[in-house]
Every structure is written in structure tokens, then in C-alpha cells.
Amino acid sequence: MFSPEGPSLRELAVQALSSVERGYDLLAPKFDHTPFRTPDEVLDAVESALRRTGPFDAGLDLCCGTGAGVGVLAGVCRERVVGVDFSAGMLDVARERGRPAGPPVSFVRADARALPFGDAFDLVVSFGAFGHFLPRELPGLFAQVRSVLRPGGCFAFPLVAPPRPGSLGYWMLLGFDTVMRVRNALWRPPFVMYYRAFRFGDVQRELARAGFRVELHALPEFGRRRDGSPRVRLVVARTPG
Questions:
Q1: How far is CA 43 from CA 2, 24, 143, 158, in A?
Q2: Confidence (pLDDT) at 11
Q3: Over the stretch 10-29, which tens digit does the pLDDT of each residue have?
Q4: Is it true that the peptide bond before 165 is cis, omega within 30 degrees of 0?
Q5: Which pTM value belongs to this model?
Q6: Which residue(s) pair with 108 in the sheet?
Q7: Tell me, what DSSP letter sits at residue 231?
Q8: Is 182 exposed, middle or buried (0-12, 13-18, 19+ CB in 10 A)?
Q9: 123 bridge partner residues
Q10: CA angle 111, 5, 65 (to 5 degrees)
Q11: Domain map (residue ranges) of the chain
Q12: Exposed/middle/buried for 104, CB within 10 Å: 0-12, 13-18, 19+?
């Protein structure tokens, strides 16, 4: 699962016993060599779909990490791109990356629960970060996203279909979440990361409550499951206007 340039087992253990912020500060230099980084295939598919939806002027990458998703925004936005994350270590790595061609890119350290922007963006994207938010935090998170979008703006993120009950993937995710719950019951500070807590029914309901109109776009690059449903969808939540 990890390349030779990735973290050692000891480094992962230290990270897992830290807070979320401190854990990612420690992991940041090697994060791009772990399976936690969003694969390029997903980034490319989302960019392709957003090109059909846009163009956009200003874009925000929410919980940007080392900046992998910034390239998606640079490909579909015309004026500026901003990445925001609460890990200083991840942002340091993001700033050191080569700048993608396109509009100016900047990075801001802030918590997604308290974004320091007005309604300055036409597009907000996020990749692989929602496991760090408990279900009860979704209303506040989506309200923050809504507050930084201009009228008619979009909040877009990929959503992978959950593995079928009884499959290997199902048991792997269930096992991971169980280990994290036991860890958080026994150790402080907590490390919030649950793969099975971000459920589409809850997400769709809370997006609607926050005032978004939700659209679903299949990402054809990933094919369909046996029942015909897409393996990966792009959720596009639009503000009025």
C-alpha cells in the first residue's frame, strides 16, 4: 500500500496517536507517497466533469492538504485559486509544489468550520477530507461552504459508491472505523477519521437544509457496478442565483 518513500510503521503509529492537526503535520513530507492521497485518476475525472459545468472565476480547495486538488481548480478557474487547510505542515508541502499553469494560486491556514472568507468563490471542491468530520458537524460545515460561495456557485466533490456488505472492502472499512473508535475511546487527543460516517443520504439531506440544490453526475471513467449504478459520482451542490 505504501511506496518505499512513504512513512514507516513507526511514523504511522506516532501520527495515529496524535491529534488530527499534529498527525498531518508529521505525515506531510511523505503524504503524497501514501494511499491517502487522492489518486490522479479521480482528480482528472473531476476536472473533466467540471470543465463541462464551468468555466468558473475563483475556486477554493477545501481541506487542500498538499495541494493535489489545486491543479483541478487551476484547470477550470480563470481568475484565482485558493487552498485552505488547518495543517501547517501540509500547507508547507503544498507551497513547495510546482505551481500549475493557470491563474494565481495561494494557500491559507484555517479550519473548514470557520472559513475566513466572504462570498468570494464560484466553485468549492474537496477531495477525501470528509471522514474528518463527524455527522453532527455536517450542518455547520455545509453552512460555511455556502457562506463563501457567490450566488449560483457550486460545491463539488467525488463520492465513491460504498462497498457491498460482506465484501472485502466492506470489512476493511468497518475494521478501520472500529479500530479508530476504540483508539478514540482510550486515547486523547482524538483522531477523527471514519470512512463509513460520510453517508450520501445524510449528506444530501444536510446539503438541502443548507440551501443547496444537489445534482449527481456519474464519472464514466470508473464504470458501473453490477446493478448499473455508477462506481463514482460527482456531487454538484448549487446555491440559488
A1: 20, 21, 25, 9
A2: 81
A3: 887 787 778 888 888 888 88
A4: no
A5: 0.91
A6: 84
A7: S
A8: exposed
A9: 59, 154
A10: 15
A11: 1-36, 37-162+199-238
A12: exposed
